[in-house]
Amino acid sequence: MNSYVGVYSVVCNKAASVLIMVSLPLIVLCPLAHADYIGPGANVVGSSTVSAILKKPVDDMRVVLRGNLVKKIKHETYLFSDGTGEIQADIDDKDFPAQPVNAKTKVELVGEVDLGRKYGVEIDVKTLRILSP
């Protein structure tokens, strides 16, 4: 019976040593691990204006705009105005709310500035919210 106790003791000591060797780097490096939130709103600059965007457009800059969709230009492309200027907004059909939207409907657009060669500066809308009908 003593031989079993000896073998068991050696096996346990080796397992404990391996566990410590594997765990130690993780324990030491865990405080160094850092992650940032990258979901919706991660890079929102805050409320912006069309005129500010057009003066100094930054590709992929997240923006929040409040105003009106003045007219539909083509499929999923609209002219948006916030009173300071007008800009094209690319809005997927699936992102429209269930309520109807017209030129008098006050909306909030959350999206990113898109600098394209073909259409210039536009907003790639991720979320459209009705503020007042």
Characterization of this structure:
The chain is built from 2 helices and 6 strands; from the N terminus they run H-E-H-E-E-E-E-E. The chain has 133 residues and is of the alpha/beta class. The chain has a 5-stranded mixed barrel.
Give the end-to-end Cα distance, rounded to a whole number of Å: 85 Å
Number of strands: 6
The level of helicity is: 25-40%
Determine the number of helices (DSSP H or I, runs of at least 4 residues): 2
Beta-sheet strand percentage? 35-45%
Q: Based on the structure given, which CATH architecture of the largest domain is correct?
A: Beta Barrel
Indicate the CATH topology of the largest domain.
Answer: OB fold (Dihydrolipoamide Acetyltransferase, E2P)
By CATH, the superfamily of the largest domain comes out as: Bacterial OB-fold
- Overall shape: elongated
**Element order: H for helix, E for strand:** HEHEEEEE
Number of domains: 2
**Main sheet summary:** 5 strands, mixed, barrel
What keyword list fits this structure?
alpha/beta, 2 domains, 26% helix, 6 strands, five-stranded mixed beta barrel, OB fold (Dihydrolipoamide Acetyltransferase, E2P), 133 residues, single chain
